Structure formats: C-alpha cells, structure tokens
Amino acid sequence: MPTARRSRGWSCLTLLLASVACGLLAGAALIAMTLPNAVAALGPADPSLEPLPRGALAAYLMLRRNAVDQPAGDTGELIDFEVSSGESASAVVQRMHSLRIINEPLLLQAYLRYLGVDRTIQAGHYNLSGAMTLRDLANSLQHASMPPIVLTVPEGWRLEQIAEMLLAAQAPFTPEQFVQATRLGSYSPTLLAELPDPTKLEGFLFPDTYHLTRDSQPAELVTTMLETFDERVDPELRDAFAQQGLTLYQAVTLASIVEREAIVPDERPLIASVFLNRLAQGIKLDADPTVQYALGRQPDGAWWKPTLTLEDLQIDSPHNTYLYAGLPPSPIANPGLESLRAIASPETSPYLYFRAACDGSGRHTFAETFEQHLQNACP
C-alpha cells in the first residue's frame, strides 16, 4: 500500500510537471511566433518583462493592432490633462477614460505595459484628445509640459513693478533682464515711430493677462505687450486723441496720470476733463501721482508714497507737475484701456480742481475755482 501511494503521488507530480512544461513550451512557442511581428508592428517590448507576460501582451496587442492606430476616444477637443506626481499609470488611464480621451482603458494599459512606459509617465501637463491614437498617447505621456505661467499686469503699474512681479510669478527670466529688454528699441517700427525715445516704453506695456512658458524670453513678453497695445489702441481711438489736440505719446502720458488719480472708474472722464482744461489754460497740472513717480521706491519698498508732504512737492524732477507746467516728459505708469478712452472722450466740464471726498468712498469733489477747492477740504 505505501508503494502504491508513492506511485500515485509520483504520477500526480509528473502530470503537474508535464503541465508546466507544456505551458512553458506553449508560451515559448507563442513568444517565438508573435514577438517578431509585434516588434515590427508595436515596437520593442520592455526587456524587463518575463517571457510569458511578454508573449501574452504581444499576442493580445497583435489581435488589436488596428485599434492601436485608430482614434482612441470620442472627444476631438484638446484637453489640458494634468498628471500628479506619484500617480499610477492605471489611475492616469482611468481618468483619461472618464474624460473620453480613450474608450478602451485596458488596451492602453496593455500597450503601456508592453512598451515599459507605464513606469515613465511624467508628472505635468499634457494637451490630449480622443482624436489621438493610442500610439500617440503613449508617446505624449512621456513628455510633460510645465504649467503655463500666468502674468496679470494691473492697470497703473510702473515698469519696475511689472518687473518685480516676474520674480513672484517664477518667470524664466529675471526682472533685470525684462527691464533691459524694454530698452532695446527694436520693436514694432510703427508704434516706436510715435515715441520720442523708443528705448523708454513706460506707458506702452499694456496691462493685460499674459501667458509665459518655461522657455519664454523677455523680448517676447515685451513684444506681446506692445502688440496688445497696438491692437487695443485702435485707429479710432488714436483719431480721438488727435481731436483733443494730443499726440499718441501725450495721450498715453495724460492717461497714465488719470489712471493713478482715479479710484472710482466712472470718474475717469471727469478727471480727464480737469487736466485737459488746465492744459488748455496753461495751468500746472499739480498731479500728486507725478510727484510719487519722481520720488520712486520708498524705504518700505512701496513704489507710490501714499501721503505726500510739502517737502515732497518740491522735489526737483521734470515729472513734478507742481513745479513744471504742461505734461511730464513721459508716462508715469502703464494705463488701462478705460483711462485711455477717458482721454479720447472726456466729459465736458468747467472744473479745474478736484480733491478726495471726505467720506472715504474714493470719489472726488470737483471745483471751478481755487476758493471752491479750498472749501471742499475735509474738516
């Protein structure tokens, strides 16, 4: 009896070994038959794959090889697809499926695993679409792009403030490189022909939202800002400046002062009328922002001193409109479109003076005479 039991045990082991051997032989035959064609059709398999998984993946993908080169999903629009650091390939594929970038997640997973690129998907941003093939998607997922750098330039900022913003936005160039780029004087011949000094672009760096890449150059940003100015300040607006008796440069200079004076947007045309009235009568503009510009950076790091003293008003600068009549020699900031429109189409008013209202609203009180102006002072 013990001998018989040993015989049956040996027989079972023999069958098991025979089954394994048959499986290995079948797997080897599968690999031998499939891999050469798979390599030609799909590319080289990941050398780290064990023979059996390699053969199984190759066989499956060869059965579906036409699908590898067909549009992978339903949506034809480009989607900004972000892969997070440490996110698994299966999680990435499932999210692509939920966005209809792919219809067959298993097929993409198999293809990524076959190539071995499921382990090398980069974290970052991708522009993906269901119109792409699985082959395209697998390749794209190896080349992430960094998220765009969004730079929003507020109205009324001076050149140095814009430059400092670049540092906070982690732009691919320094504030000093940006400032230097504004002094090249080799941009937009049409626009620069209207500037007394083409190497001084204060006032023409149009406030807007700009998108940078990690490869952007400072001259590209300057060019885009000037092109935006040219686009927004259209011929109709320039003709309106001329009807006010102003050149483009003079209009931008005055608009930069209005931009810094106006807190409540609807007062811009009225403030513009005050300055135009003073210019027409040869009265000094007496504009605080021009003094703030001349004073420059303050000890606390601010570029615009909030409260001016009598001593400040005596600073000897051509930009100080308390000392020098007419417009300052250049814009003091970069005005937005509404301030430029206020110069092109000011209100008609008799006012020559304005000062901050006493209610903290940001509005102003306006006066025709200096006596009325004094009466408007806060108690």
Q: Keywords, please?
A:
379 residues; mainly alpha; Dna Ligase, domain 1; two-stranded antiparallel ribbon; 48% helix; 7% strand; elongated; disordered N terminus
Overview of the molecule:
The protein is mostly helical and 379 residues long. The protein folds into three domains: 30-145, 2-Layer Sandwich (Dna Ligase, domain 1); 149-232, no CATH class; 235-375, no CATH class. The chain has 16 helices and six strands. It has helices at residues 2-42, 51-63, 65-68, 89-98, 105-115, 134-140, 159-168, 175-181, 189-192, 218-232, 235-243, 248-261, 268-281, 288-295, 337-344, 370-375, and strands at residues 79-83, 124-128, 149-152, 209-212, 353-356, 364-367. The strands form three sheets. It has a two-stranded antiparallel ribbon with strand order 1-2. A hairpin with a 7-residue loop joins β5 (353-356) and β6 (364-367).
Topology:
Layout lengths: L1 H41 L8 H13 L1 H4 L10 E5 L5 H10 L6 H11 L8 E5 L5 H7 L8 E4 L6 H10 L6 H7 L7 H4 L16 E4 L5 H15 L2 H9 L4 H14 L6 H14 L6 H8 L41 H8 L8 E4 L7 E4 L2 H6 L4
Antiparallel strand pairs: 1-2, 3-4, 5-6
Helix pairs in contact: 1-2, 2-5, 4-5, 7-8, 8-10, 11-15, 12-13, 12-15, 13-15
Q: What's this, in brief?
A:
With 379 residues, this protein is mainly alpha-helical. It has helices at residues 2-42, 51-63, 65-68, 89-98, 105-115, 134-140, 159-168, 175-181, 189-192, 218-232, 235-243, 248-261, 268-281, 288-295, 337-344, 370-375; strands spanning 79-83, 124-128, 149-152, 209-212, 353-356, 364-367. A two-stranded antiparallel sheet has the order 1-2.
